[in-house]
Amino acid sequence: MRTTVGIIGAGPAGLLLARLLHGAGIDSVVLESRDRAYVEHRQRAGILEQGTVDVLRAAGAGERMDREGLRHDGMELRFARRRHRVDFPGLTGGRSVMVYAQTEVCKDLIALQLKEGGPLLFEAEALAVEGADGDRPRVRFRHQGREEVLECDYVAGCDGFWGVSRAAVPASLARVSERTYPFGWLGILAEVPPSHDELVYARHDRGFALLSMRSPSVSRLYLQVPADTDAAAWSDEEIWDELERRLETDDDWTLNRGPITQKSVTPMRSYVHEPMRHGRLFLAGDAAHIVPPTGAKGLNLAVGDVVTLARALTHEKETGSAELLDAYSATCLRRVWQAERFSYDMTTMLHRASDATSFDDGLQLAALDRIASSRAAGTDLAEGYTGFPIG
Protein backbone atom coordinates (compact mmCIF):
# COMPACT_ATOMS: atom_id res chain seq x y z
CA MET A 1 0.00 0.00 0.00
CA ARG A 2 1.31 3.45 -0.89
CA THR A 3 0.21 7.02 -0.15
CA THR A 4 1.67 10.51 0.17
CA VAL A 5 1.01 10.96 3.90
CA GLY A 6 0.65 8.06 6.29
CA ILE A 7 -1.32 9.16 9.35
CA ILE A 8 -1.07 7.06 12.50
CA GLY A 9 -4.04 7.60 14.81
CA ALA A 10 -7.69 8.50 14.19
CA GLY A 11 -8.16 10.91 17.04
CA PRO A 12 -9.12 14.49 16.25
CA ALA A 13 -5.56 15.34 15.12
CA GLY A 14 -5.20 12.52 12.61
CA LEU A 15 -8.75 12.84 11.31
CA LEU A 16 -8.55 16.60 10.89
CA LEU A 17 -5.18 16.33 9.15
CA ALA A 18 -6.67 13.84 6.68
CA ARG A 19 -9.55 16.25 6.05
CA LEU A 20 -7.27 19.23 5.49
CA LEU A 21 -5.03 17.24 3.14
CA HIS A 22 -8.05 16.02 1.19
CA GLY A 23 -9.08 19.64 0.67
CA ALA A 24 -5.60 20.39 -0.66
CA GLY A 25 -5.60 17.43 -3.05
CA ILE A 26 -3.02 15.44 -1.06
CA ASP A 27 -3.78 11.75 -0.57
CA SER A 28 -3.41 10.03 2.79
CA VAL A 29 -4.15 6.81 4.63
CA VAL A 30 -5.24 6.82 8.28
CA LEU A 31 -4.35 3.86 10.53
CA GLU A 32 -6.22 3.46 13.82
CA SER A 33 -5.52 0.61 16.23
CA ARG A 34 -8.99 0.70 17.85
CA ASP A 35 -12.38 -0.02 16.33
CA ARG A 36 -14.74 2.72 15.21
CA ALA A 37 -17.06 2.37 18.21
CA TYR A 38 -14.20 2.94 20.63
CA VAL A 39 -12.96 6.06 18.82
CA GLU A 40 -16.44 7.52 18.69
CA HIS A 41 -17.17 6.99 22.37
CA ARG A 42 -13.95 7.58 24.33
CA GLN A 43 -14.48 10.55 26.63
CA ARG A 44 -12.02 13.41 26.23
CA ALA A 45 -11.86 17.20 26.36
CA GLY A 46 -14.83 19.32 25.44
CA ILE A 47 -13.68 22.94 25.11
CA LEU A 48 -12.86 24.22 21.61
CA GLU A 49 -10.93 27.47 21.21
CA GLN A 50 -12.04 30.07 18.70
CA GLY A 51 -9.30 29.01 16.28
CA THR A 52 -10.35 25.36 16.48
CA VAL A 53 -13.98 26.28 15.82
CA ASP A 54 -12.92 28.34 12.80
CA VAL A 55 -10.79 25.50 11.39
CA LEU A 56 -13.58 22.92 11.76
CA ARG A 57 -16.03 25.21 10.01
CA ALA A 58 -13.60 25.89 7.16
CA ALA A 59 -13.00 22.14 6.79
CA GLY A 60 -16.71 21.46 6.41
CA ALA A 61 -16.98 19.83 9.84
CA GLY A 62 -18.84 22.56 11.69
CA GLU A 63 -22.51 22.02 10.86
CA ARG A 64 -23.45 19.79 13.81
CA MET A 65 -21.05 21.63 16.12
CA ASP A 66 -22.82 24.91 15.38
CA ARG A 67 -26.21 23.27 15.87
CA GLU A 68 -25.51 21.31 19.06
CA GLY A 69 -22.44 22.93 20.62
CA LEU A 70 -22.69 25.51 23.38
CA ARG A 71 -20.95 28.81 22.70
CA HIS A 72 -19.46 30.35 25.83
CA ASP A 73 -18.62 34.03 25.96
CA GLY A 74 -17.00 33.88 29.38
CA MET A 75 -16.04 31.88 32.44
CA GLU A 76 -16.40 32.44 36.15
CA LEU A 77 -13.64 32.42 38.76
CA ARG A 78 -14.60 31.69 42.35
CA PHE A 79 -12.37 32.35 45.33
CA ALA A 80 -12.92 33.44 48.93
CA ARG A 81 -16.67 32.92 48.31
CA ARG A 82 -16.51 35.63 45.62
CA ARG A 83 -17.61 35.35 41.97
CA HIS A 84 -15.88 37.08 39.08
CA ARG A 85 -16.87 36.70 35.42
CA VAL A 86 -14.21 36.94 32.70
CA ASP A 87 -15.82 38.40 29.55
CA PHE A 88 -14.09 36.73 26.59
CA PRO A 89 -15.43 38.80 23.65
CA GLY A 90 -15.12 42.06 25.56
CA LEU A 91 -11.47 41.39 26.41
CA THR A 92 -10.31 39.73 23.18
CA GLY A 93 -12.09 41.62 20.44
CA GLY A 94 -14.85 39.09 19.95
CA ARG A 95 -13.35 35.64 20.60
CA SER A 96 -15.23 32.91 22.47
CA VAL A 97 -15.04 29.14 23.06
CA MET A 98 -17.37 26.25 22.21
CA VAL A 99 -18.41 23.38 24.48
CA TYR A 100 -18.48 20.40 22.10
CA ALA A 101 -17.05 17.06 23.17
CA GLN A 102 -14.05 15.52 21.42
CA THR A 103 -16.13 12.40 20.82
CA GLU A 104 -18.52 14.47 18.72
CA VAL A 105 -15.66 16.08 16.76
CA CYS A 106 -14.37 12.59 15.95
CA LYS A 107 -17.81 11.39 14.84
CA ASP A 108 -18.13 14.34 12.47
CA LEU A 109 -14.66 13.89 10.99
CA ILE A 110 -15.01 10.11 10.65
CA ALA A 111 -18.27 10.53 8.74
CA LEU A 112 -16.62 13.01 6.36
CA GLN A 113 -13.54 10.84 5.86
CA LEU A 114 -15.56 7.72 5.06
CA LYS A 115 -17.80 9.66 2.67
CA GLU A 116 -15.23 11.80 0.86
CA GLY A 117 -11.68 11.10 1.98
CA GLY A 118 -9.02 8.47 1.57
CA PRO A 119 -8.72 5.12 3.34
CA LEU A 120 -9.44 5.06 7.07
CA LEU A 121 -8.50 1.65 8.50
CA PHE A 122 -9.83 0.76 11.95
CA GLU A 123 -8.24 -2.05 13.97
CA ALA A 124 -5.01 -1.38 12.07
CA GLU A 125 -2.26 -1.44 14.68
CA ALA A 126 0.88 0.46 13.78
CA LEU A 127 3.89 -1.63 14.78
CA ALA A 128 6.78 0.63 13.80
CA VAL A 129 7.83 3.64 11.77
CA GLU A 130 10.87 2.77 9.66
CA GLY A 131 13.18 4.84 7.49
CA ALA A 132 11.98 8.19 8.83
CA ASP A 133 15.38 9.74 8.15
CA GLY A 134 15.36 8.64 4.49
CA ASP A 135 13.32 9.49 1.40
CA ARG A 136 10.86 6.60 1.68
CA PRO A 137 9.53 6.17 5.21
CA ARG A 138 7.14 3.32 5.88
CA VAL A 139 4.77 2.18 8.57
CA ARG A 140 4.54 -1.49 9.44
CA PHE A 141 1.07 -2.34 10.73
CA ARG A 142 -1.18 -5.30 11.47
CA HIS A 143 -4.67 -5.38 9.95
CA GLN A 144 -7.16 -8.25 9.76
CA GLY A 145 -4.57 -10.65 11.08
CA ARG A 146 -1.92 -9.79 8.48
CA GLU A 147 1.19 -7.67 8.77
CA GLU A 148 1.35 -5.03 6.04
CA VAL A 149 3.51 -2.07 5.04
CA LEU A 150 2.32 1.45 4.23
CA GLU A 151 4.89 3.25 2.09
CA CYS A 152 4.66 7.04 2.09
CA ASP A 153 6.47 10.30 1.47
CA TYR A 154 5.71 11.58 4.96
CA VAL A 155 4.44 10.11 8.23
CA ALA A 156 2.25 12.03 10.69
CA GLY A 157 2.44 10.59 14.20
CA CYS A 158 -0.93 11.39 15.76
CA ASP A 159 -1.02 8.26 17.93
CA GLY A 160 -0.66 9.76 21.40
CA PHE A 161 1.93 9.43 24.12
CA TRP A 162 1.99 5.62 24.06
CA GLY A 163 2.09 5.23 20.28
CA VAL A 164 4.96 4.07 18.09
CA SER A 165 5.66 7.43 16.44
CA ARG A 166 7.47 9.16 19.29
CA ALA A 167 9.52 5.99 19.86
CA ALA A 168 10.82 6.30 16.28
CA VAL A 169 12.74 9.46 17.18
CA PRO A 170 16.23 8.44 18.41
CA ALA A 171 16.59 9.19 22.12
CA SER A 172 19.94 10.83 21.43
CA LEU A 173 18.20 13.50 19.35
CA ALA A 174 15.34 14.20 21.73
CA ARG A 175 14.94 16.58 24.63
CA VAL A 176 12.14 15.89 27.10
CA SER A 177 10.76 18.46 29.56
CA GLU A 178 8.13 17.33 32.03
CA ARG A 179 6.42 17.91 35.35
CA THR A 180 4.14 15.51 37.22
CA TYR A 181 1.67 17.00 39.70
CA PRO A 182 0.88 15.34 43.06
CA PHE A 183 -2.86 15.67 42.48
CA GLY A 184 -5.44 14.68 39.88
CA TRP A 185 -9.04 15.38 38.98
CA LEU A 186 -11.92 13.22 40.15
CA GLY A 187 -14.35 13.78 37.29
CA ILE A 188 -18.01 12.89 37.05
CA LEU A 189 -20.74 12.93 34.43
CA ALA A 190 -24.18 13.55 35.92
CA GLU A 191 -27.66 13.48 34.41
CA VAL A 192 -28.59 16.92 35.67
CA PRO A 193 -28.73 20.37 34.04
CA PRO A 194 -25.59 22.45 34.71
CA SER A 195 -25.79 24.73 37.74
CA HIS A 196 -24.36 27.66 35.79
CA ASP A 197 -24.50 28.61 32.12
CA GLU A 198 -20.71 29.03 31.85
CA LEU A 199 -17.70 27.15 33.22
CA VAL A 200 -16.83 27.85 36.85
CA TYR A 201 -13.22 27.50 38.07
CA ALA A 202 -13.07 27.52 41.87
CA ARG A 203 -10.08 27.92 44.16
CA HIS A 204 -10.87 26.75 47.70
CA ASP A 205 -8.86 25.90 50.80
CA ARG A 206 -10.08 22.30 50.43
CA GLY A 207 -8.88 22.14 46.82
CA PHE A 208 -9.87 23.04 43.29
CA ALA A 209 -13.28 22.39 41.73
CA LEU A 210 -14.60 22.84 38.20
CA LEU A 211 -18.20 23.08 37.06
CA SER A 212 -18.57 22.26 33.37
CA MET A 213 -21.11 20.59 31.10
CA ARG A 214 -21.57 18.30 28.13
CA SER A 215 -25.03 19.51 27.12
CA PRO A 216 -27.98 21.48 28.56
CA SER A 217 -29.01 18.32 30.42
CA VAL A 218 -25.64 16.71 31.33
CA SER A 219 -23.16 18.18 33.81
CA ARG A 220 -19.42 17.50 33.91
CA LEU A 221 -17.74 18.34 37.24
CA TYR A 222 -14.30 17.84 38.76
CA LEU A 223 -12.65 17.81 42.17
CA GLN A 224 -8.94 18.07 42.98
CA VAL A 225 -7.88 14.84 44.72
CA PRO A 226 -4.56 13.13 45.55
CA ALA A 227 -3.01 11.54 42.46
CA ASP A 228 -3.46 7.98 43.77
CA THR A 229 -7.19 8.36 44.45
CA ASP A 230 -9.54 5.50 43.59
CA ALA A 231 -12.69 7.04 42.09
CA ALA A 232 -14.80 4.17 43.43
CA ALA A 233 -13.82 5.12 46.99
CA TRP A 234 -15.97 8.25 46.72
CA SER A 235 -19.71 7.80 47.15
CA ASP A 236 -22.07 9.93 45.07
CA GLU A 237 -23.20 11.82 48.15
CA GLU A 238 -19.61 12.54 49.21
CA ILE A 239 -18.82 13.94 45.76
CA TRP A 240 -21.85 16.25 45.71
CA ASP A 241 -21.18 17.42 49.28
CA GLU A 242 -17.56 18.24 48.45
CA LEU A 243 -18.49 20.05 45.24
CA GLU A 244 -20.99 22.12 47.20
CA ARG A 245 -18.33 23.12 49.74
CA ARG A 246 -15.73 24.11 47.16
CA LEU A 247 -18.15 26.00 44.92
CA GLU A 248 -19.80 27.92 47.76
CA THR A 249 -20.50 31.64 47.37
CA ASP A 250 -21.92 34.45 49.48
CA ASP A 251 -25.04 34.79 47.33
CA ASP A 252 -27.97 32.42 46.78
CA TRP A 253 -26.31 30.22 44.11
CA THR A 254 -27.11 26.52 44.50
CA LEU A 255 -25.62 23.32 43.05
CA ASN A 256 -27.93 21.03 41.10
CA ARG A 257 -27.57 17.38 42.09
CA GLY A 258 -28.51 14.34 40.04
CA PRO A 259 -27.60 10.75 39.14
CA ILE A 260 -23.86 10.25 38.53
CA THR A 261 -23.30 8.04 35.47
CA GLN A 262 -19.50 8.03 35.30
CA LYS A 263 -16.54 8.54 37.66
CA SER A 264 -12.84 8.62 36.81
CA VAL A 265 -9.56 10.16 37.97
CA THR A 266 -7.49 12.15 35.48
CA PRO A 267 -3.74 12.51 36.22
CA MET A 268 -2.10 15.93 35.90
CA ARG A 269 1.05 16.18 33.85
CA SER A 270 3.05 18.62 31.71
CA TYR A 271 5.24 17.13 28.97
CA VAL A 272 7.07 18.43 25.88
CA HIS A 273 9.11 16.36 23.41
CA GLU A 274 11.53 18.32 21.24
CA PRO A 275 11.93 18.30 18.31
CA MET A 276 8.50 17.48 16.89
CA ARG A 277 10.07 16.31 13.63
CA HIS A 278 12.58 13.63 12.71
CA GLY A 279 13.32 13.43 9.00
CA ARG A 280 9.99 12.77 7.31
CA LEU A 281 8.20 11.92 10.55
CA PHE A 282 6.13 14.70 12.13
CA LEU A 283 4.70 14.38 15.65
CA ALA A 284 1.38 16.00 16.51
CA GLY A 285 -0.84 16.20 19.58
CA ASP A 286 -0.15 14.01 22.61
CA ALA A 287 2.67 12.26 20.76
CA ALA A 288 4.65 15.47 21.28
CA HIS A 289 3.12 17.29 24.24
CA ILE A 290 0.73 16.94 27.18
CA VAL A 291 -0.78 19.69 29.30
CA PRO A 292 -2.76 19.52 32.54
CA PRO A 293 -6.47 19.90 31.70
CA THR A 294 -6.88 23.13 33.67
CA GLY A 295 -6.34 25.33 30.62
CA ALA A 296 -8.39 23.19 28.17
CA LYS A 297 -5.48 23.14 25.74
CA GLY A 298 -4.82 19.50 24.77
CA LEU A 299 -7.22 19.05 21.84
CA ASN A 300 -6.66 22.61 20.68
CA LEU A 301 -2.88 22.21 20.58
CA ALA A 302 -3.31 19.08 18.45
CA VAL A 303 -5.46 21.07 16.02
CA GLY A 304 -2.78 23.76 15.81
CA ASP A 305 -0.15 21.12 15.03
CA VAL A 306 -2.03 19.54 12.13
CA VAL A 307 -3.10 22.89 10.68
CA THR A 308 0.58 23.88 10.63
CA LEU A 309 1.56 20.54 9.06
CA ALA A 310 -1.19 20.69 6.43
CA ARG A 311 -0.11 24.21 5.43
CA ALA A 312 3.50 23.07 5.14
CA LEU A 313 2.63 20.02 3.02
CA THR A 314 0.38 22.12 0.80
CA HIS A 315 3.14 24.69 0.39
CA GLU A 316 5.60 21.95 -0.59
CA LYS A 317 3.13 20.54 -3.12
CA GLU A 318 2.42 23.93 -4.71
CA THR A 319 5.92 25.43 -4.71
CA GLY A 320 8.35 22.54 -4.30
CA SER A 321 9.80 24.31 -1.24
CA ALA A 322 10.34 22.47 2.03
CA GLU A 323 10.76 25.73 3.93
CA LEU A 324 7.58 25.38 5.99
CA LEU A 325 8.17 21.67 6.61
CA ASP A 326 11.64 22.48 7.91
CA ALA A 327 10.12 25.07 10.23
CA TYR A 328 7.33 22.78 11.48
CA SER A 329 8.81 21.88 14.86
CA ALA A 330 9.89 25.41 15.77
CA THR A 331 6.58 26.87 14.60
CA CYS A 332 4.52 24.44 16.66
CA LEU A 333 6.73 24.63 19.74
CA ARG A 334 6.26 28.39 20.08
CA ARG A 335 2.53 27.79 20.55
CA VAL A 336 3.07 24.65 22.63
CA TRP A 337 5.23 26.43 25.18
CA GLN A 338 2.76 29.31 25.47
CA ALA A 339 0.02 26.76 26.16
CA GLU A 340 2.24 24.94 28.66
CA ARG A 341 2.88 28.24 30.46
CA PHE A 342 -0.81 29.13 30.50
CA SER A 343 -1.86 25.69 31.73
CA TYR A 344 0.82 25.70 34.43
CA ASP A 345 -0.20 29.17 35.62
CA MET A 346 -3.87 28.18 35.77
CA THR A 347 -3.03 24.95 37.59
CA THR A 348 -0.79 26.52 40.23
CA MET A 349 -3.15 29.45 40.76
CA LEU A 350 -6.21 27.28 41.39
CA HIS A 351 -4.97 24.04 43.00
CA ARG A 352 -3.92 23.93 46.64
CA ALA A 353 -0.89 21.79 47.47
CA SER A 354 -1.13 19.46 50.47
CA ASP A 355 1.78 21.29 52.12
CA ALA A 356 0.62 24.81 51.19
CA THR A 357 1.53 27.59 53.61
CA SER A 358 -0.31 30.83 54.36
CA PHE A 359 2.17 32.53 52.02
CA ASP A 360 1.20 30.17 49.19
CA ASP A 361 -2.47 30.83 49.86
CA GLY A 362 -1.87 34.57 49.84
CA LEU A 363 -0.14 34.41 46.45
CA GLN A 364 -3.00 32.45 44.90
CA LEU A 365 -5.63 34.84 46.19
CA ALA A 366 -3.57 37.84 45.09
CA ALA A 367 -3.29 36.42 41.56
CA LEU A 368 -7.06 35.87 41.38
CA ASP A 369 -7.80 39.29 42.83
CA ARG A 370 -5.50 40.83 40.22
CA ILE A 371 -7.51 39.21 37.42
CA ALA A 372 -10.74 40.41 39.01
CA SER A 373 -9.53 44.00 39.41
CA SER A 374 -7.27 44.59 36.39
CA ARG A 375 -8.44 44.65 32.78
CA ALA A 376 -4.90 43.89 31.65
CA ALA A 377 -4.72 40.76 33.80
CA GLY A 378 -8.21 39.69 32.75
CA THR A 379 -7.27 40.19 29.10
CA ASP A 380 -4.19 37.99 29.47
CA LEU A 381 -6.31 35.17 30.87
CA ALA A 382 -9.06 35.60 28.24
CA GLU A 383 -6.55 35.65 25.37
CA GLY A 384 -4.87 32.50 26.67
CA TYR A 385 -8.11 30.64 27.27
CA THR A 386 -9.70 31.45 23.91
CA GLY A 387 -6.50 30.42 22.14
CA PHE A 388 -3.10 31.49 20.92
CA PRO A 389 -2.65 32.14 17.18
CA ILE A 390 -2.08 29.07 15.00
CA GLY A 391 1.10 29.13 12.93
Describe the fold and architecture:
There is one protein chain. This protein has 13 helices and 20 strands. By secondary structure, the protein is an alpha+beta fold. It has an 8-stranded mixed beta sheet with strand order 6-5-14-15-16-13-17-20. A 6-stranded mixed beta sheet has the order 8-2-1-12-19-18. The chain is globular and about 65 Å long.
Radius of gyration: 21 Å
Strand residue content: 25-35%
How far apart lie the N and C ends? 32 Å
The main β sheet shows up as: 8 strands, mixed
Please mark out the parts with pLDDT under 50 across 5 or more consecutive residues, or reply none: none
Count of extended strands: 20
What is the residue-averaged pLDDT?
A: 96
Count of alpha and pi helical runs: 13
Helix content: 25-40%
Which SSEs are present, and which pair or pack?
Blueprint: E1 5-8, H1 12-23, E2 28-31, H2 36-41, E3 47-48, H3 50-58, H4 63-68, E4 70-72, E5 74-79, E6 82-87, H5 88-92, E7 97-99, H6 102-116, E8 120-121, E9 124-130, E10 138-143, E11 146-151, E12 154-157, H7 164-167, E13 175-190, E14 199-203, E15 209-215, E16 218-226, H8 236-246, E17 260-274, E18 277-278, E19 281-283, E20 289-290, H9 298-319, H10 323-326, H11 328-350, H12 358-373, H13 375-386
Parallel strand pairs: 1-2, 1-12, 2-8, 5-14, 12-19
Antiparallel strand pairs: 3-7, 4-7, 5-6, 9-10, 10-11, 13-16, 13-17, 14-15, 15-16, 17-20, 18-19
Helix pairs in contact: 1-6, 1-9, 9-11, 12-13
